[in-house]
Amino acid sequence: MKYYPIIGLEVHLELNTESKVFCGCSTQFGSAPNSQVCPVCLGLPGSLPVLNKTALTYALKVALALNCEIADFTKFDRKNYFYPDLPKSYQISQYDKPLSKAGWLDIETNGALKRIGITRVHQEEDTGKLLHKEGVAMSLVDFNRSGIPLLEIVSEPDMNSAEEAYEYLTRLKAILEYLDVSDCDMEKGSLRCDANISISTDPKKLGTKAEIKNMNSFKAVRSALEHEITRQTGMLSEGSRIIQETRLWDDNKGITLPMRSKEGAHDYRYFPEPDLVPFIFSSEDIKKVADSLPELPTARRKRIIEQYSLSEYDASVLTQDKDMADYFEEAVKLYNKPKSVANWLLSDIAAATSSTVGIKQLNLSVGRLVEMLKMIDSGVISGKIAKDVLAGMIDTGKPAAAIVKEKGLEQISDDKVIENAADNVLRENPKAVEDYRSGKATALTFLVGQLMRHTKGKANPAIANKILIKKLGAS
Predict the structure, then answer these.
(1) Does the structure show a pLDDT above 70 at 216?
(2) Residues 14 and 46: beta-carbon distance below 8 Å
(3) What is the total count of domains within the chain?
(4) 226 CB-near residues (< 8 Å, 6+ apart)
(5) Most buried in the list 40, 221, 302, 454, measured by CB within 10 Å?
(6) What spatial distance separates the first Cα and last Cα of the chain, rounded to whole Å?
(7) Residue 454 lies in domain
(8) Average pLDDT of the segment spanning 157-172
(9) In this predicted structure, what is the pLDDT of residue 474?
(10) What's the helix, strand, coil split of the chain in %, to 5?
């Protein structure tokens, strides 16, 4: 029997406004616990919420970028539940009249585009944060996060593999970074993802779903889904029944663990928030926000392909990271060789970045990269030596010229010096000389390599190749 995974994702996004969504407290990350709180975000009696207009504008930007229908009438609701990090015992969220609905996001799967539906994008407030200390029989609560503006982006259950979910999250994060509405830092909790997954024998019919939480990276989401697909498929194959529940991902063990039974909407006893009036978006309001949207990844990818004659692959990888794409276009303004710039960015420079260290954090300004590329063109250094120079630039922050001088990496282009090296190489490798003269062209590659080794990689490869051919043909 064939089983089909059916996956939907719920992404929670903290917006990077300066103040919280319903009060004026700061949203700065990393401050002392409970230092950014007031009666509103502590839920004290008599306090009243006031909606942050910037948070609302950011929410509209995200909804429009995800091709959603914007509601002409929307309201807030109280989501009632008891938990230590929720001081009011309810969360201000949106239920039956969300900000937006019926959007979509295209992903690429197996070389083809697939459209993933967006059920809704709605606004709510974040909760506090529980702090657990090992060996202490209590938990502490930091309410600094309570009231930070939060967006919930809910997808349709349109994904059918862990890889599709990973691709969806990657593309969604790129859009959010282009909009500059959040830092999307999963380690800080700015972007969080819960996954709903069920297994069915009918690809168009949902099975009993499990919700997976506690995934702090896109790789963790992918791994958790792969595990859950295997777990649920195995249970169904054995005739066992899947329980609707919430499960926690254990990254160290590589498994999901049961947490609690899965709640339904009725468990939260939603009702309209009486302290916030409903509001209506005019067509002028929506147009104003739509006109302010930046060029998004898909449009930028198409433009870069046309403007710089890059491949679909190169343009796609570049534009997934806004900072990388910005860096590329700045570099091309100073050095009009787009393919060369892209090659360096997507290889050695990309290898120096990580999930926590982006291109902005590297000790490598656009001007200094261009300086190095021009040194290659002028023959001062070879492309091979340039890799070592680049690594030195990133490690020290020094310009290419300084690295070359300190390490003595300047390329040798003097014919006489290279001729002397060539004579030594030919004398030391008589068999390779004989092979070349017998018609084995690969022997020349070997001899060039030996010459480069002899000069510690400093010889100009083109001159070295030319001199060797001349000497090999002279005898």
Answers:
(1) yes
(2) no
(3) 3
(4) 162
(5) 221
(6) 73
(7) 415-474
(8) 96
(9) 59
(10) 40, 20, 35
| CA dist., res. 226 & res. 222, Å (int) | 6
pLDDT (tens digit, 9 = 90+) per residue, 316-351?
A: 999 999 999 999 999 999 999 999 999 999 999 999
Judge if 160 and 62 occupy the same domain. yes
In a domain, 390, yes or no: no
Residues 180 and 323 in one domain: no
CA distance 31 to 389: 40
Write out pLDDT tens, residues 73-127: 999 999 999 989 999 999 999 999 999 999 999 999 888 899 999 999 999 999 9
For residues 411 and 414, what is the distance between their CA atoms, to the nearest angstrom?
9
Cα–Cα distance for residue pair 34/429, rounded to 1 Å: 74
Q: CA 348, CA 391: separation in Å to the nearest integer?
A: 8
Q: In whole angstroms, give the CA distance from residue 64 to residue 105.
A: 11
- AA identity, residue 225: L
Could you say which DSSP state residue 119 is in?
A: E
Rounded distance between C-alpha atoms, residue 275 and residue 292, angstroms = 30
Q: What is the DSSP string of 296-312?
A: -HHHHHHHHHHHH---H
Domain contains 167: yes
Tens-place pLDDT, residues 430-463: 999 988 888 888 899 999 999 988 888 888 888 8
Strand order, beta sheet including 271-272: 90-93, 77-80, 271-272
* pTM to 2 decimal places: 0.86
277-313: buried (b, 16+ CB within 10 Å) or exposed (e) per residue?
eeeebeeeeeeebeeeeeebbeebbeebbeebebeee
State how far the Cα of 246 lies from the Cα of 265, in Å rounded to an integer.
14
